[in-house]
Amino acid sequence: MKRTNYAGRTNESQIGEEVVLKGWVAKRRNLGGLIFIDLRDREGIVQLVFDEKQDPAAFKVANECRSEYILEVRGLVRERAEINPDLPTGKIEVEVKEANILAKSQTPPFEVKDNVDASEDLRLQYRYIDLRRPEMMKNMKLRSKVASIIHNYYDNNDFMDVETPDLTRSTPEGARDFLVPSRLYPGHFYALPQSPQLFKQLLMAAGVDRYYQMARCFRDEDLRGDRQPEFTQVDTEMSFATAEDIQDMTEGLIKRVMKEALNVDVKTPFPRMEWQEAMDRYGSDKPDTRFGMLITDLSDIVKDSSFKVFSGTVADGKFVRAICVPGGADHYSRKDITKKEDYIKRYGAKGLAWVKVTADGYNGPIAKFINDLAAPINERLGAKEGDLILFVADSFHVVADSLGYLREKIAHEMDMIKPGQWNYLWVVNWPMFEYDEGFGKWIAAHHPFTMLNEEDLHYLEDGEDPHKAHAQSYDIILNGNEIGGGSIRIHDPKIQEKVFKALGYTKEEARARFNFLIKGLENGMPPEGGLAFGFDRWVMLLAGADNIRDVIPFPKNSKGIEPMTAAPGTVDQEQLDELHIDVKDDSENN
Amino acid sequence: MKRTNYAGRTNESQIGEEVVLKGWVAKRRNLGGLIFIDLRDREGIVQLVFDEKQDPAAFKVANECRSEYILEVRGLVRERAEINPDLPTGKIEVEVKEANILAKSQTPPFEVKDNVDASEDLRLQYRYIDLRRPEMMKNMKLRSKVASIIHNYYDNNDFMDVETPDLTRSTPEGARDFLVPSRLYPGHFYALPQSPQLFKQLLMAAGVDRYYQMARCFRDEDLRGDRQPEFTQVDTEMSFATAEDIQDMTEGLIKRVMKEALNVDVKTPFPRMEWQEAMDRYGSDKPDTRFGMLITDLSDIVKDSSFKVFSGTVADGKFVRAICVPGGADHYSRKDITKKEDYIKRYGAKGLAWVKVTADGYNGPIAKFINDLAAPINERLGAKEGDLILFVADSFHVVADSLGYLREKIAHEMDMIKPGQWNYLWVVNWPMFEYDEGFGKWIAAHHPFTMLNEEDLHYLEDGEDPHKAHAQSYDIILNGNEIGGGSIRIHDPKIQEKVFKALGYTKEEARARFNFLIKGLENGMPPEGGLAFGFDRWVMLLAGADNIRDVIPFPKNSKGIEPMTAAPGTVDQEQLDELHIDVKDDSENN
């Protein structure tokens, strides 16, 4: 029997027609003489009816069926006596004339339904059953659809789809490279790419002009919520393009994806927000603009306050900033606020000052110190009776991190985010360098190949402070999540040399690390730039999923294990011998 | 200046228009007061004219230019005094009004032109220069174009683009797996996939129904001519499909690729040739049908011959077969033929018997023994005066391999292959198993998940010989090259168990190796099958290239090294410590 269409696509226009359907038994009810089966395929569910009197052979087959058996049926589409409004096929059913069991199934380890209560590891171990759930199938279809739009969009805009190697070379930048021992060259290793960054720049040197790739990338990082050791990047690069050109091109893609995959119209151009403003007002380089409650600077108002914590902070050249939580006075108890104070200490905050706004002025532990400034503070914050004001007094980064965290947290707790918003925006004009406290040195805020703003080039000269420079880089943000980022790259080898110097490399170190890129720059590199999207995360947001693993067909779990195949696994000593490596007995250290 | 279009796309319709172009200086001629520059971008070349009198500033810039400098120009398109018929833009030139050097270049290590005489390693080391050559750029564009058609085709045929993991588990089948040591789990390794075979089968169990992926695959094999350790596979799988369904779907793709990428019409359906016929008549499981010279069996004619080599071979149940080389008598000397005889000894042939056909009967060392059979032999072979007949008498495989090799070799030497042919065909009905002389055991001819022909299922029963079974598998051949292959898969766990047994696995071994697949079969696996294309090789043939590295942007050389980044490389001991491995000092053994 040749299938006529997907079960889930059966519809009213086919009433009276004969159809052949194939799918999984999702549900089965035996009403004595009549059996109803919900037949499921990737497009949905349709109800089958087996009538013992009319079609005894088919009925017998239906009677043998159990959950998740695979069935093929030939039957007639007919109107349903009782319409099921929850089902797209709810107006019809199929009267089965002939049926065959194509495959049997053991009792599945968990039910194939949304909101299943199986543990994630069990779901991942039986991923092929988990993916049958309508929600998961919807995610996979969305992912495929978005990939299709991406290919189509770039293919039609003169981008060339170019593949770059997965077996490449580890750079000393690449702590966290996955390594692959070479069989032919003892003691030598390939590395899996953390991104195709240098390859795509060299493709611009090759004259490819416009490049894109759905690139698999690998990073052996410590695992956190939504990180995966392998992930997919929509990688693009354009020659002779300005940052604006690249942003426009990207917006065109997003607009199409939103329309074609979700039927949502988004307005372009997206807002461009300066990095400085994002940090000042949202306390984040990935600002969520779906709600207000902006961070407001009060340093000038409190600089002479008798509250020494505030005035002292300002005197030290630091900042006193606040957010005003509308209606927060009743919502949060003193105890709740103390918990939040404990939390923000991880950002380096020494404390969380707060007042509740009442008809009679401020209320709370510091009220008596700043009641005299209530009028200008309230005015600037737009605070009114019943609001809660949270202050942090500290350095720029501590204030931003602390209030940025509180702003987001409280918005979620108080349900301030109206659903259905798709706030895309660009964060632009990033600092070129940032100081890494951990390493105790300056590092590249994006990567060492990022071009400075033209007007900041003088900072690279002797006697100036290079760390004041800003970069021609940009991140694309969706609802407070960074989904991509990029920059114009350095194409002049002399500028690249100065940037390497600002990062603390000697000439020799730079050559040792990036020889092939430097040679590329010396052999005719056009001005160029690009952008990379985190495909998995973007699809997660588009799907409305809150776990990145729900949009990856076979993800690693939070421990880096893929439970279905039980990877990683042990291997034969013979294999290791061929690769000239030994497993070290360092068990004491682990 | 904003580019108006690619240099190579400038055309007559733009005469009189102002254009802005950006590209590389391909050639420069200074005629004193006039400079001509060929400006190259990925779309081609256009001639720029700089006139010292009219535009002295632009002329000065042109005067500074050297090969491979990057230039932006603003100018007017005008008719060319002397048309260059070899150039698509040969009727026009651009009178430059304004010019800037965007990047300088060192003297390139080799000239940017086709048929460059640089060594391949130098070309690969400076790949970004090598890829500027028109031929290489054409290959990259073709590759991108074909990828685009593939995405479009499968996306529009209800296939879902699903990504499978690159960090997966090594199976004991997987000698030649690339391994990736785990940092989190000492002594454990991920393996890079040799193909997504089991994942795609399990996606069918998940109900994906139609799957495709442009999948990166990895195989740590000994390197040969056109093998790369990483390669790209167009991977597909379909549920509820017959072998014919999958072949039809594939033909639809090929037809579109041939039309849209090469403007060639190919006729579908492609011929289906039985494996047995391919081996009997072409001596190959990837027959080249662009020329005749088929292998012909003469066993019945020579079985009573006085030439004991022939009659004895037939008496032993083996074969005497021949090819007739039209006009071969004059083309090949006795010495030439002896060389060929030496060559086919590597296939196990004990000798190469031959005769030249003259007006007076056969001529050559064995002529006197078989002149009596010349009439029926000539008749069957269609041999005539001036032809050369080559005989091999041996077992089925030795005869096929030897005559198959000679057939191909001679066709190339004698220029028998008319260019411009695109002979696609299917080789079907393969043996299920083949005996591996090296391992001394039966192995799967395709892979252990291939379904048998229904009528051969009985061979799996006790007391029968499973190795007689044929499989529902098929290879797709283009001009004598295998470009893809596939099969219907086993979806019944009982049949899979019997096949594992025929391959010599105990139940426990099979479980240990393929546990997750077996579980998948037990949990509702639909009847299904699929096909995988070798993308690199197909593009190579479409491009008319004879080296697979010429269609891979950054390939490994024939020693497994990628000369640009110098991968694989050494890594810090610290990185190895983190991965719990040591490099073994086995230098004596290497």
TrEMBL record, chains A, B:
Keywords annotated in UniProt: Aminoacyl-tRNA synthetase, ATP-binding, Cytoplasm, Ligase, Nucleotide-binding, Protein biosynthesis
SUPFAM superfamilies: Class II aaRS and biotin synthetases, GAD domain-like, Nucleic acid-binding proteins
Name of the protein in question: Aspartate--tRNA ligase
Stored InterPro entries: Aa-tRNA-synt_II (IPR004364), aa-tRNA-synth_II (IPR006195), aa-tRNA-synth_II/BPL/LPL (IPR045864), Asp-tRNA-ligase_1 (IPR004524), Asp-tRNA-ligase_1_N (IPR047089), Asp/Asn-tRNA-synth_IIb (IPR002312), AspRS_core (IPR047090), GAD-like_sf (IPR004115)
Name of the coding gene: aspS
Organism: Limosilactobacillus coleohominis 101-4-CHN
A Gene Ontology BP annotation from the UniProt entry: aspartyl-tRNA aminoacylation
Pfam families attached to this UniProt entry: GAD, tRNA-synt_2, tRNA_anti-codon
Residues holding ATP: R219, D220, E221, Q228, E482, G534, F535, D536, R537
PROSITE patterns in the record: AA_TRNA_LIGASE_II
Superkingdom of the organism of origin: Bacteria
Gene Ontology cellular component terms for the protein in this record: cytoplasm
Region of interest (Aspartate), ranges: 197-200
Subunit structure: Homodimer.
Family named by the database record: Belongs to the class-II aminoacyl-tRNA synthetase family. Type 1 subfamily.
Domain (Aminoacyl-transfer RNA synthetases class-II family profile) ranges: 140-553
CDD domains the record matches: AspRS_core, EcAspRS_like_N
EC number: 6.1.1.12
Molecular function in Gene Ontology: aspartate-tRNA ligase activity; ATP binding; catalytic activity, acting on a protein; nucleic acid binding; transferase activity
UniProt function note: Catalyzes the attachment of L-aspartate to tRNA(Asp) in a two-step reaction: L-aspartate is first activated by ATP to form Asp-AMP and then transferred to the acceptor end of tRNA(Asp).
